[in-house]
Structure formats: C-alpha cells, structure tokens
Amino acid sequence: MATMTTLLPGEDVPSSQFPKSKKGTLTLGPGLRHVPPSTILATTAGSLQVDHKKSALWLEFENGRYQPAVGDLVIAQVHHTGSDHFFCSLTPHTPHALLGQLAFEGASKKTRPNLKSGDIVYGRITKASKWEDTELECINPSGKADGMGQLKEGMLFHVSHAFARRLMMGTDKSGHSKGAVVILEEMGEKIRFEVAVGRNGKVWINSSSVKETVMIGRLLTTADEEHWDVEQQKKAVKKALQDA
Amino acid sequence: MPREADPSTNEQAFLLSALRENIRLDGRALDAYRPISLSFGEDYGTADVRIGKTRVRATISADVVTPFVDRKFDGVFTISTELSPMASPAFEVGRQDQTEILLSRILEKTVRRSGALDTESLCIVAGQKCFHIRADIHVMDHDGNLVDASCLALIAALLHFRRPDVEIKGEEVTVFSVREREPVKLAMQHQPFCVTTSCYEEGTILLHDATLLEEQCREGDVLISMNKFGEICQIAKYGGAPMDGLSILTCTNTVLERVKIFDQLVKDRIAEDEKRRDVGGLIAELSAENDR
Fold first, then answer.
1. How crowded is residue B50: how many other Cβ atoms within 10 Å of its Cβ?
2. Probe site for chain B from A79, A114, A151, A155 (most B CB atoms < 10 A)
3. What is the pTM of this model?
4. What is the CATH number of the domain that holds B224?
5. Cα-to-chain-centroid distance, residue B210
6. How close is the nearest chain B Cα to the Cα of A77, in Å?
7. pLDDT (tens digit, 9 = 90+) per residue, A211-229?
8. Position B3 in a domain
9. Is the ipTM reported for this complex over the cut 0.90?
10. At what angle do helices B245-277 and B146-160 cross, to 10 degrees?
C-alpha cells in the first residue's frame, strides 16, 4: 500500500484507484455503492482498500454496527428457543439470527443440544440478506464441528468489529501478524488459554485462572481503544506478564 | 426496545467468580472509581462529567417567574432528567423507565430536599417575583453508575452557575444582563454527593462505581448521599438482597471518604475555571455584590 485514500460518505472513488486487472467483474465490498453507469460512491467514512488480483474494492472502517456476511465466524448469544431453531443475537437491539437445532456436530432429532437463554455459541453465518433472517450454523459442510459450538465458561470481551477483523487475519508466510495484533501470540508463548474471535466484535477467552483471562481481555480491549501499534502491544504484554 | 440487552450467562458467572477473588474486569480495586473528568462549558452553569465511559452533562438556567402562592418568600428550583437513545438504545424518547424515575427521584432527594440550594435567596419581590432555577441533566453515554455521575454534574453546575444581578428600587425591579453587571453566584448551603454501593454474594462483596455489566449482575444496591461533613441526606435501597445494619454503617464510612474526594475535585475544577475566566483580575472589581 503506497498511499492510503480516505473517503467521506458521498465521495466518489477516483477512477485512478480502480483495480488494474481488466479481466473479471469488479467486486465491491463493505462501505461502497455502485451508481450506474460508472460511479462508485462511499457510503461511510473509511480508508479505501484495493485488491488488484481479485479485482476488489472495499472500505475499511472502525465504527458502526456489525453487518452479517456469509462465511463470517461470529459469537452469538442465545435469546430464546423456538420449535426447531435457536433465536440468537449477534449484536444487541437488532433482529435475531436463526441457528438450527440440528446444525451441530452429531445432532439428530433425539440428541439435539440443550441451549438455554443466555448461552453463547461460536458459529458461522450461512445466510445474510437484507430481507430475510440471518442464519447460523455450528457445523462444517463435512459434518464436523471444527471448533464451533457452545462456548462453556470463560469470559466474553467486547471490541470494535474492525479490531475483531484484525485479530482474525492470521499471519503471513514469514509469521508476522497481518492485522498487526500480536497480543494473543505473545501471550500464548507464556500462558495456556483458549480463544474464539467473532467478527461481530466479541472475543471469548478461557484459561485456567480468572486473573489470566482478565489480563488478556484487558490488553485486547485497551489495545483496541487506544490504537496500540505492535511495539506498544509487545511492551504491554511484557509488563502484564511481569506484574502477574 | 425498552430493555437493556442481558449479558450472557458466561459473563455473569465469570464476573461473580472474579469478584470472589477480589478482581474486577477493568483491574480496579473494589472501592475505586474509574477515571473521573469534570469540565465546564463556555457559559456559566454547564458541567460535563465523565466517569469511564459514562458521560453526563448538566445545564443550569434561570428566569424570572411568580413564586408559588404558598411559598411567597422562596424561589423555584426544578431538576429535569432526560435519558435519550443517545445514551443507550434501551432508552426511549417520551417513555420513562425505571432508571429514569430512580435517577430523578434520587437527585430530587439529594439536592433539592436536602436544601443544598438556598431557595430563599432566589426571591426578588415577596409573592410577586422570584428566580426559577432549572437544572437539566442530559445523559450522553451510559456505562453504569448514572446516579453518581449525574449528582456530581448537578452540584458542579450549580456551583459554577451565575444568575443575573437584580436591583430593586421601590416597586421597580431591574434585571441586569451579563454585559451590564457581573452575574451573581447561587447561594449554596452545602454540597451533597451521591455514592452508589453495589452488593454481591448476599452483601459480602461491596463495590463502588459499578459498570453497566456489573450493575446488571448485582444483587442489590444502596444509594447514600452525604456532604463532606458526613451529614447524610438520604439513604435509598430499592429492593435487592437484604443488607444488615452493620454493613450499611461501614458503607457510610467509605462513602464519606469518596464524597470528600468528590468535593475536593469540584472545588479544584471550579477554582481552575475561575482563574481561566478572571482575565486581568477584573471580576472582583465588576461585582456589585456585597459580602454578607
């Protein structure tokens, strides 16, 4: 990324920024809107990201509510149970997402999971549309849970959805974190803990002691709020481990 | 939507198990407050209080009205609270919910009924003209502990406010604008502050300055208002787990410590603000008020 273009809502994307590859159709991601014939408008304030290979354009922004998208891994909270679905909330005060009672590993009509109101699950979004209910599942197409399912014990921490996305970016070939968040890696060298990151801005952490869970959670939330860079994160992790 | 979203069972269970080990999620001590910031607006009588993410703004205004028939020698003092959806999606415009009723009631008891503001000094002509002091509390962001933040904002705003100066010549009353005469401070008799104590585990764990999550998980709460001399203005306990007399007594002791800190904070900030406004030391010269 040579220069970063920042757009305000209503601004046109300059045509010089369009992806260079000519083949294939242009894909628009979050925060952008196509106005025929050839204008692309920003619908929110954010920095413009371009993927030349995939011929994709999207805006990266920090604030606002999480918008479900197919394939996203999320942490949902069961609100109530219906006849064959669990009604889950992804974000507070928004319509519920549906989680099929049979969409769990090894679930059948007789052995369906017994989730109560207030339980949390890790799942993947299978349907996200403007007009229909969002749908979730806790099972792979191959029928395996693959880490999804109910999250027992542990603690849920709330971060911005941009930070959650950065946490989920993974590492590149040389082992550097793509999202520039190294807290979990640094902590993982010293402490054993389980973690699940939901794209809807929730991070679930479970470890053997309350103190460690709180420590990791606080580091993540403050790193998000105060926009720590990698160096600051490393320093903070070191300090937290010393104090513990 | 009239309800705050409930926290998950995991969060509730974790919070309680952490409290049993004397750990709070934000790393504070049990009786510690989040960082408090108090700032004043350009105009007299606006105070902005932030306790962590909770933010409350109090605005005071004055106008001249006819006093109540049965209280000829008293001015009028009203407090209005407003919880807008800006603070939290759980609040609705035009519909009072439990939080709002509780907030306005506690403020009324703490500040108005304890006689913090000397209403007699607001009288201009007995039975005919008096000042009406109106306090508006706006909650801008809600992350728990609204009552303490609102009370702090209200007292700070009242101390900061100046009403227009008046002159009475026989039957004629002149109200001077700010540009004609330096406005006058309100006569405050004492400065009460409210401190909320939340209790968990049947009253064995006591917390100050609970966040929204901690408030949602608590078993009960005690709201105690007092001034820095330890004079209690009100104690409110609306339901929740029972508490014995002794723990209420220990509560009042810790509350007193906290109230002293609040009082000092307000005093310091007011002094800072006065210094900032008093360019060239002219304010004392401009004032037409006599020392009583």
1. 20
2. A155
3. 0.88
4. 3.30.230.70
5. 17
6. 7
7. 999 999 999 999 999 989 8
8. no
9. no
10. 40
